[in-house]
Amino acid sequence: MAGPLAQFEIHKIVPMEIGGIDISFTQSSLWMMIAVACTAIIMVGGMWSKSIIPGRFQNLAEMFYEFIASVIRDYLGSKEGSKYFAFVFTIFMIVLMGNLLGLLPYSFTYTSHIIVTGALALLVFFTATLIGIFKHGLHFFSLFLPKGLPLAMAPLIVVIEIISYLSRPLSLSVRLFANMVAGHTMLKVFAGFSVSMVASASVGINIIGLLPTLLNVALLGLELMIAFIQAYVFAVLTCIYLRDAIELH
């Protein structure tokens, strides 16, 4: 039986190399494409009919839309937040689909790789920073000097604020990556225990051997909840970083 970390290994489907750089099409790339296709089917297909009384499919699309719209209203306001709806919604769906599709048997969780979560975090970080600079110019850097701060403490606080600001991509990416790796590893370990116990149990005590299977079902439900929570947290932090850049809080 493969080890619990084998599920995170990258395997090439179509090997490709250009100028000594490996750009092979892997199972991670495949599941990213599947995530994009699923998102397109939900959003475009769900809103195709635009019925006054929505069906289940349209309800699902509207639920995702309204959920992110409410998050943006809470953190950015309706007027200012509408400018960034597409960006936040795209980030949310990329993370959510990566988390959810990774729970399917024989799938691949691309959000369990730090290179993916790191790229998303850097995208959010640089987007928020550039928005802040374009909007406020050099005044943007007053973000690192809180109002009312005593001048004597300024050198220390500015350094702390800069380090805190630069650590945002790291904390944002590691949080998602670590949760996905830990959760999927735990599921794999407990699933292995369940198979071993059921296989070794005699006919008379098969009920006891099946108890870990019930635990697996509970863990799967927990992972399903975490998949939504992590996507929500990523979207919320994206909104917070955008708000900091816009309002210089």
SSE order, one letter for each helix or strand: EEEEHHHHHHHH
Give the averaged pLDDT, no decimals: 86
Count, helices: 8
Taken as a percent bin, the fraction of beta residues is under 5%
Multimerization status = single chain
| Biggest pleated sheet | 2 strands, antiparallel
Return the domain count: 1
Number of separate strands: 4
Task: Tell me about this structure.
The chain is mostly helical and 249 residues long. It has one domain. It is 69% helix and 4% strand. The chain contains eight helices and four strands, in the order E-E-E-E-H-H-H-H-H-H-H-H. The strands form two sheets. Strands 1-4 form a two-stranded antiparallel sheet. A two-stranded antiparallel sheet has the order 2-3. Strand 2 and strand 3 form a beta hairpin. Helix 1 crosses helix 2, helix 2 crosses helix 4 and helix 5 packs antiparallel against helix 7. The longest helix is centred in the C-terminal third of the chain and has 42 residues. The radius of gyration is 22 Å and the shape is globular. The protein starts with 11 loop residues before the first strand and ends with a helix. The mean pLDDT is 86.
